Amino acid sequence: MFMALLLFFWLTGTLPDSDAAPTALFFCAILSYITPIISYVTERTEAAFDELADHLTLEPSAVARLREGLSRKSTKWFVVNTSMGVAVWLLQSRVLAGSFEVMFGMLSGSGIDFAMAVGPLPVWIFMFCATHALVDNARTFRQLARAVHIDLLDASPLTPFGRMAVTSTLVVIGSQALFPLMWLGEDTDPWTSIPGLLGTSLALLYLFFAAVWPMHQRLRATKRDELVRLGREIRTLRASSADPATDLTLSPLLVYRREIADALEWPFDISIVARFALYLVIVPLTWIGAALIENLVDVFIRT
After folding, report:
1. pLDDT at position 297 over 60
2. Does residue 14 belong to any structural domain of this protein?
3. What is the pTM of this model?
4. Which domain holds residue 114?
5. Each residue of 234-281: pLDDT tens digit?
6. Is 211 domain-assigned?
7. Rounded to an integer, what distance in angstroms lies between the CA atom of residue 174 and that of residue 194?
8. Separation of alpha carbons 297 and 121, rounded Å
9. Burial code of 162-197, b = ≥16 C-beta within 10 A, e = fewer?
10. Burial (CB count within 10 angstroms: exposed 0-12, middle 13-18, buried 19+), residue 66
11. Structural domain includes residue 118
């Protein structure tokens, strides 16, 4: 796909020497990135779902229906997302061109004008489809968070929620890391980046918290209820015991209460937290690297 897109922009004269070359390179990179990464994330999401399946309180038919929805979308779904992508493309093109007359003139103009006018269209369609698919899967896991069995002493079966949330953000973070390719040009209009960065940032927040937050709330509420129950039972035993300090029935409850008090309230382990921290530094490091490269190029050109 990357080579085919490069060939298209080369044939239209956009690559390698025009001012629009950085933007064309961004189109090639992001379209070639989204396709395999969304497949990878969907596969990892299905694996996380399968890990949770044995811990769900849902009927088998409901579990099978939710599992199928992770990777299968209806024709209506594709039509809606394609339409939204076209609508945003028209709106952004109108803002960049200044009028619809100029925009449609670019579509019938030279090869470079045509490539730059039509190039954002598949990007928006791919981004809408990919983001909507991830949001749908996050909603599915949000449902699972309300139907999964919780064992406060062993929260490891719940870590697929955390892994799914972090893996889903990889699509968005990787897309944002590619935006500096457009900024390598001398006169880059901010409106070529602002809509995409704003939309992906909102999607990033939703994808991370959609399933993790309700799971956190359930864990915290279950933990609180269990501590209240234990506190009530301990108080009853202390009141009925002649000597609480030597009561052997009280000691196990105190130990159990300490274990419950230390129980996790988030569906994460160290590896998940470390991976997400690594993902978060990708974007700023990429942007800083792009700025340094551009400054170095300017220095060499001036000398």
Report:
1. no
2. yes
3. 0.79
4. 2-217+258-302
5. 888 887 776 665 566 788 888 899 999 999 899 988 888 788 777 777
6. yes
7. 16
8. 30
9. bbbbbbbbbbbbbbbbbbbbbbbbeeeeeebbebbe
10. buried
11. yes
